[in-house]
Design a protein that fits this description.
Order of helices and strands: EHEEHEE
CATH architecture: 2-Layer Sandwich
Number of helices: 2
Distance between the termini: 38 Å
Mean pLDDT: 96
Strand content: 35-45%
CATH topology: Alpha-Beta Plaits
Length: 94
């Protein structure tokens, strides 16, 4: 079976900082076998970049629309990007 890989940049807005969003995001990405990073942005949003199997990337976008318990997502934008293969893990960036 042919597998499609994808990369997506997700921007999540709402009450998404100070609620464990980044660490739960990392846990979910690892569970899905994705590579990339997550970090808090100065404007209060959370940015996520993930690469991996298309269906797993899609699941990460779906997870990002609600986030962990305690988060309240107002908006979630998913922007496809060219696949680079630059990551070998998933990390929380500061």
């Amino acid at each position: 079976m042919f597998s499609m890989k994808a990369r997506i940049h997700i921007v999540v807005e709402g009450r998404v900082q100070g609620v464990g969003f980044r660490f739960e995001c990392r846990r979910e990405a690892i569970r899905l076998g994705l590579h990339g990073w997550v970090r808090n942005m100065d404007d209060g949003s959370v940015a996520i970049v993930v690469e991996g199997e298309q269906d797993m990337v899609d699941q990460m976008v779906k997870w990002s629309r609600s986030g962990p318990a305690g988060a309240y997502v107002d908006a979630c934008r998913a922007i496809p990007e060219p696949l680079t293969g630059e990551f070998d893990s998933f990390e929380v960036r500061f």
